[in-house]
Amino acid sequence: IPKGPGNTKVAKSTAVPPGPPVYLDLVYIPNHSNSKNVDVEFFKRVRSSYYVVSGNDSAAEEPSRAVLDSLLEGKAQWESNMQVTLIPTHDSEVMREWYQETHEKQQDLNIMVLASSSTVVMQDESFPACKIEL
């Protein structure tokens, strides 16, 4: 804990400070959707039409269930019920379980989870893809 003026200790916080919300079209949830970096306050403040959720490491519990739950809790506190689309970059057990267990709440909050059924083929590589129109 760093010392402030007059030798008083000032606590250092990693939480998002309170303030007005920021509206964006597309947000990539940082650090493989790790709950150490993204919490309810993040979703209360960073409001987007689309959130990209990465993470495909089940041993590291990626994406984090806590982050996915934070999206629900943060979105519930928005004044409007604007459509939000969640775009996972990988099919994971955590994502499937969360989707099934919270599907009704997702519908109430106007959150859609986008599953990609398209594949892009480039040279010797193929990968899933989705098209987003902003």
From TrEMBL:
One of its GO terms (cellular component) is dendrite. One of its GO terms (molecular function) is actin binding. Coiled coil: none annotated. One of its GO terms (biological process) is dendrite development. PANTHER family: MICROTUBULE-ASSOCIATED PROTEIN, MICROTUBULE-ASSOCIATED PROTEIN 1B. This is MAP1B protein. It comes from Loxia leucoptera. The lineage of its organism: Eukaryota, Metazoa, Chordata, Craniata, Vertebrata. The gene is Map1b_2.
